[in-house]
Amino acid sequence: MFKDLNRTLVIAEIGNNHEGDMGAARELVDRAAETGVDAVKFQTFITEKFTAPLDPARFARLQKFQLSFDDFAELADRTRSHGLQFISTPLDLDSARFLGAIVDAMKIASGDNTYWSLIDIAARAAKPLIISTGISGRDDIAKAAKTTTDAWADIGHAGDLALLHCIVSYPAPPEFANLRAIPSLAAAFPGHTIGYSDHTMGLDAAVLSVALGARVIEKHFTLANDYSDFRDHQLSADPEDMKRLVKRVRTAEALLGPGDIGTQDCERDLIQPVRRSVAAARAVNAGETIGADDIVCIRPGGGIPPGEENRAIGRKLKTAIAQGAMITPDMLDAG
User: Fold this and answer.
1) Cβ atoms of residues 218 and 207 within 8 Å
2) Partners of 40 in the beta sheet?
3) Angle between helix 69-81 and 22-35 (nearest 10)
């Protein structure tokens, strides 16, 4: 999934913006498909196995937002009917076990990238795995990657892992986005796909991440920024913003190109017009010997190139030529 990417994978992170309403969840999938993204992502959890009821209001809200496993199975089918990939983040062990049977890929949230048993269970589903690296240093990221690859080795699975740079703060202040961590992750973890989970306001960070090597981008997605007072809506991309993001990402990819050094196809017809050739700096008569002051290198190319002026200097012209005329080898005597 990630190893074979021929373009950046753009994920619409629906998360809990459905607020437990399956009608809204279905519409979010449908609207995401219209924006041109490659995948949608949800969060799957059993509230009691995810968080303690220390904040009763928050606990009650999570219970309200919780969808059933049957709901997610339906959403997976609906997602694929649009030609998109279905991804979800398990927030408890039972959810991870369930998701392994229905997802195209699973995602480990930044807060859980040291929850080793969750990572192990997710990896053993033998599906592509995304791990957000937020709040973790190199050692913890390395351990998360090793926990994943060890589980894959244990079950004889080749595996496909993407590590996403992420700033957990939501929204993340621009001065802390630290996008240069993306090439740092690539250098530190060769062999794994590197991406970016964007929590900044606006679209710029996600687009810039492509230039820095992100091959997977995740952006929160909502039907409308004023959908409700649930904070995530205000900080998410609405359908028009997501459509703009996809377009800008594709433009960035086109501008970046393959990275090879050399002549591009669109330049080939311009090679001769923009190169230079040895030409007469003055009108020269037949029989005259060409001196160093008698030549100039001007456009177009196609004749004696700069650096090979000695092919003309010291030789006699067979025919007269005007100032600015190209001096070609057939105009010169044997020397």
Assistant:
1) no
2) 12, 86
3) 20
Provide the token pair at 202: 């606006």
The structure's pTM equals: 0.91
CB 177 within 8 A of CB 200: yes
Strand partners, 130: 107, 162
- What percent helix, strand, coil does the chain show, rounded to 5? 40, 20, 40
pLDDT tens readout for residues 242-269: 999 999 999 999 999 999 999 999 999 9
Q: How far apart are CA 102 and CA 85, in angstroms?
A: 11
Give the integer Cα–Cα distance in Å for 167 and 140.
Answer: 15
According to DSSP, the residues that pair with 289 across neighbouring strands are 316
Q: Under a CB-based contact definition with an 8 Å cutoff, are residues 41 and 90 in contact?
A: no
CA distance 222 to 230: 11
Determine the Cα–Cα distance for residues 311 and 43; give it in Å rounded to an integer.
73
CA Rg value for the chain = 30
> What would the DSSP string read from start to end of 34-84?
HHT-SEEEEEE--GGGT--TTSHHHHHHHHHHPPPHHHHHHHHHHHHHTT-
Regions of the chain short of the pLDDT cut 50: none
**Count of residues for the chain?**
335
Please, are residues 26 and 233 in contact by the beta-carbon 8 Å criterion? no
Task: In whole angstroms, give the CA distance from residue 237 to residue 49.
Answer: 29
